[in-house]
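Annex B. Sample input.
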Amino acid sequence: MKLSSDREIKTLFSNQIKTRWFPFLLAILGLGLISGLAFFQNLGNLGLLDETEPLFAEAARQMLVTGDWITPYFNEETRFDKPPLIYWLMAIAYQIVGVNEWGVRLPSAVSAFILIGLGFYTLSYYVQKTQFYTVKKQEIQGLISPSYKPRFRTVLLHPLPWMGAILMAFNPEIVAWARIGVSDMLLTGCMGSALLAFFLGYATDEAKISESEFKEYPNVGFKNLTLPQNRVNYWYLAFYILIALAVLTKGPVGIVLPILIIGSFLIYIGKGYQVLQEMRLWQGSLIFFVMTLPWYILVTLINGQSYINSFFGYHNFERFTSVVNRHAAPWYFYFIVVLIGFAPFSVYLPIAIASTKFWKRRSWKRQSRIQQLPLFVVFWFAVIFIFFTVAVTKLPSYILPLISCCVFKL
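Annex B, continued. Sample output.
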C-alpha cells in the first residue's frame, strides 16, 4: 500500500516537472548551451587583440589599482573616449576571475547572453499572444472550445524563439564582438535590451484600447483583451534603467537612438501621447537622471573643460560631423557591413523588410500591439542604419545594435 502511494507521488511529481517546469528548465539549459558555445567557450584563450582592447583592459586595471572610479586613465593620462561603465564592469570581473583575458571580455560575453535571453523571451511572448488572438477569432467562429488558452510555458518549445536565439547567437558579427573586451557589445546589450523592454511594456500595457483596434473581435469583450489600468509596468521601468546604462556605456548615442526609434514608431502608429502617459515619463526621467548625472557631474567637476571638449566635442560631435582617426568610408559602407555581418541570411533581409508592408499604415494601426513587433523592428533597423550612414566617421561596430534586431525580421 505504501509502495503504491510512493509510486503515485513520484508519478505526480514527474508529471508536474514535465508539464509545468520542464519547458522553463529546457529554455534555461538551452540558452545556456547556445551562449556557452557562442560566447564563453575558450573566451580567454587568445591574447588581447588589436590596439583597442588593451586600452580598455589597462584603463580598467588602473581604475582598480588606483581606486579612482571617476576618471579613467591609461598610462597616467586621462582616457575620455568612453564613459565608465565598461571599465567598472571589467574591474569587477578582474576581482572575480583575475586580471586576464577572461576578465577583459566577460562583460561583453554576459551582455550578449542577456540580449539573447531577452530576445528569446520576446519571441516567445510574441508567439503566445499571436496564438491568443488566433484562438479568440476561432472561438467567435465556433471552431474551438472557449476554455482553450495558449500558455507561455508551451510556447517555450515553439521553434520560432529557438531559431531566433540561434541566429542571433551564432551571427558572425555578434560572436566576434561578444568575444572582444571593448564597449560595443555592452552598448548593444543595453540598447537592444532597452528597446525590447520598451516593446514588451508597450505590448503588455493595453489598458486604453480604442474600439477600432479590436473591431474584428466584437463578441470577445475588452475585459478579456486588456490589462488592469493600475498595474505597474515593470518593463518600462527596465527600459529606463537600461537606457541609463547605455548612456553610461557610450554617452548620448545611448539615448538618442532609442528616442529616434521609439518616437518615429509611435508617431507612425499614432499612439505617441497615449504611450507616453503609460510610460510615466516623469518617473522614468527621474530614474534616468539619478543613474547618469552623478558620474557626469563628478567627472566634469574634476576634469573641467578638457573632459567636455574631449568627450562631447571630439568623441561625439566630431565623430558624427567629420572623419576621426582616419575612419572614413563611402556612403554604401554599411550595406557591405550588414551583408557580411549577418551572412548568410542577409540576402533575405530586403524580402523580410518588404514582407512587413510597412507602408500600409492603416492596416498596422488596426493590429494589436504585440502584432506590431515586425513594424517596430523595421523602425529599429532603419533608424540606426540611416543615422550611422549619415555620420561621417564610420566603423563596422557602430551598427552592431542593428545586427541584433535582424533576427526578428527573418
